[in-house]
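FIELD: query
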Amino acid sequence: MDFFAHQEQAQRKTTQLLALYALAVAAIMLAVYAVFSIALHQVLFWDAGLFGAVAGGTLLVVATGTLIKTSELSQGGRAVAEALGGQRVDGAGADPAARQLQNIVEEMAIASGIPVPPVYIMEEETGINAFAAGYAPGDAVVAVTRGSLQQLTRDELQGVVAHEFSHILTGDMRLNVRLIGVLHGILAIALVGYAALRLAPYLNSGARRSRDGKDGNAGMAIMFAMFAIGLALIAIGYIGVFFSNAIKSAVSRQREFRADAGAVQFTRNPSGLGGALLRIGGYKPQGRLAHHGAAQASHMFFVNGVRSFAASLFATHPPLQQRVQRILPEFKGNYEQLDTARSAGKFPAKPAAAAAFAPSSASIQPTVGAPQPEDVANAAEYIAALPAALATAAHEPFGACAVLYGLLLDADPAVRARQLDALGKSTPAALVAEVQRLRPMLANLAPHMRLPLASLSMPALRSLSPQQYKALRTSVHALTAADARLSIFEFALQRLLLRHLARAYQPQPPSANPTASLAKLQGPLSIVLQVLAAAGEPNAARAHAAFTTTLRKLLPAALVAATPSAQPALAELDAALDQLANATPQLKRSIVAACVECAATDGKLEVTEYELLRAITDSLDCPLPPLNPSRL
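FIELD: result
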């Protein structure tokens, strides 16, 4: 799975869809104009003034519909999951099936290098289905039907979750959520038609009262005209339905094949994902969803969740049989027969055909945006190695705050005393006591496990109230400022955690046009490479040489001082990363490759280097799996 190529492709697909969307709006304008022309003149003819009014009104309705829906979805994945009837999993009170799902999601997230997303269950849905939603990995959620938990084995559920993580990593998820908001606009004309039908009787009665009952015929005429316009607008609304389904179909079909391939590469277990698809094919409800909002989000689901003529005409998913055959070549079309044979172990769990999905080679350098099976195993080991008290604390808001504060406590007793004193002034005494209770366990935690533990606490931290979130940011900054210096770990933790939390509490405006010139980014790129080169190399001359070599590979004409200069402060790195985040996906490919090369110049990656590297790549929305201890 080529992470950067998929990101680039998602941007190109967006441009194509805008053209199709413009065509839909134009068709709706012409249809609305025809209705009003006939209603006002009893004949269809060109009237520039009327067309201008109709065009402006249509655009206003479409824009208003889009803005309203987009505003509803401003909270990202959480808004989508709750709109579809999802209920958030509470780690402490979850049933065994929900806890298993949460464990799978945590393993996948840590292996992918993204913050652990909250998990939602659609309790009323008996079909087997799932989706991931959000604008970015930091505000993503994973939602699964109760039917999935009841019908699938752990391996099958893992395959489904891995498929959804492929959508998160490739940018499909962001496009899916944006489509819901944008397409709602072209469906809004039908809503205006329904409003006209409801309004018509009141117009009739109002007309009668205004004329003291002397001209009832006029009121009846107004009422019938409004009824006619309302019915016509509802009919025109089906133009929006047509284009909406066409756009969703154009977006989704091939991406499902890619997500299947990514899931198999992720888990290296085609039997898991293939088995889930087999279960769906042989299960009477299949993936059907009962929720009234399912049609609007049909392009987001793991399998087709809507059964209708329009859904079959513009299918958002490839045929189930094709998906199974790509993963399990021995499938010949009989779901029950193969599922029975599979359960009896009559064919290998990992057939040779799956080799096409497997990674080509291993490297000491991590694979950005394309986690491997060893990363999943590594993540499972991380979670299993955590002390039970830390794992429990990370799953609820109070304990998650204590974990975060405890990770920032300094090893120097004098500095730690100042930190605890500052914390006591801004947080309740009970929270300070919890920090001190967890501190010995956090102090004994292996350094490479610190960032995964912080990631594990993300769902709990995202459930804080806005006031609690503000207090958290204040306390984090106070703890890192206690010794008047910012360590690489402190920088990485702040950058990774607070950046994603900010997206949940402070929705970000759309990005500006991406920067496509590497030369324009030489300044921030130089800062990032200088800090990275010095992170694992105490010798200033060797660090400068690594920085110079890496920068000139990217920009041969770059002017670099012959001798080392003062290292940029980590505060400067913050601003530099914000600038690099606006690069195009293909430029990010070059930037990330240069960063990895710079960090691994000496053939190894220290924990400190890796923490900084993760903060850098995460800032570019290019997630990096956690450090494998075998690479130390």
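FIELD: remark
Confidence is low (pLDDT under 50) at residues 346-364.
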